[in-house]
Amino acid sequence: MTASFQFPDKNHRGLASTLFCGILVLGLGLAAPAIAAGGDDSSGASGGASAEKKANPGVKKTDLTTCAPGEVWDKKKKKCLERHSGVLPDPDLTEYAYSLAKADRYQEAIDVLDLLDNPNTPRALNYRGYATRKLGRTEEGIGYYLKSVALDPNYKQVREYLGEAYVIQGKFDLAKDQLATIEKLCGSKDCEYYEDLTDALKTAHAL
């Protein structure tokens, strides 16, 4: 004989139906993420990146964003703008010039720095020195570095770049003076500016 179980009244049957529906909905809910993960969602991250690339073909996906020649990057609006005087505040133009210099676009970096209302800040002078030095004009670059140091003697990065310029010239004692200053400013040798200048001296067999 086959045993069967029946709820004694319709109220219990209604409860069973409700429980069954709840379990079914829960199962579908758990399965949905897996289904979505396996699908082709063209509106996801890759689609967004593609759209941005089309809108700004000069944008490079790096920590230091750059645009096409003749443009500057507006980090607030997240788009490239035509380069001209006053297009961005001085601090933004200064940092964008550094982005260009780090992307090996040295003359463009200098051109952007030429747009500054006040080109004689420690950072602007440091970046101008960096771009100028990278163009092979080391002595001129050192001149900008020294002006930056005079404005802010505690600016560690310019000390590193100045030391590297001295290494290029073979003035290792002067480079080591900058290394010692960086150690004092950082409070230890565990400092990226100290490490980078140390590497430059080691490469030149001066340490």
Quick structural gist:
Helix content is 62%, strand content 4%. The protein has 207 residues and is mainly α.
Q: What do these coordinates show?
A:
- The protein is mostly helical and 207 residues long.
- Helices cover 62% and strands 4% of the residues.
- Strands 1-2 form a two-stranded antiparallel ribbon.
- A hairpin with a 4-residue loop joins strand 1 and strand 2 (79-82).
- Helix 6 packs antiparallel against helix 7.
- The longest helix is centred in the N-terminal third of the chain and has 29 residues, at 10-38.
- The protein is elongated.
- Residues 1-8 and 10-63 have low confidence and may be disordered.
Total of DSSP H or I helical runs spanning 4+ residues: 9
Largest sheet: 2 strands, antiparallel
What is the alpha-carbon Rg in Å?
31 Å
Structural class by helix and strand composition: mainly alpha
Task: Present the secondary structure layout.
Elements: H1 10-38, H2 45-55, E1 71-74, E2 79-82, H3 90-102, H4 106-113, H5 122-134, H6 138-151, H7 156-169, H8 172-186, H9 192-203
Antiparallel strand pairs: 1-2
What keyword list fits this structure?
9 helices; 4% strand; mainly alpha; elongated; 207 residues
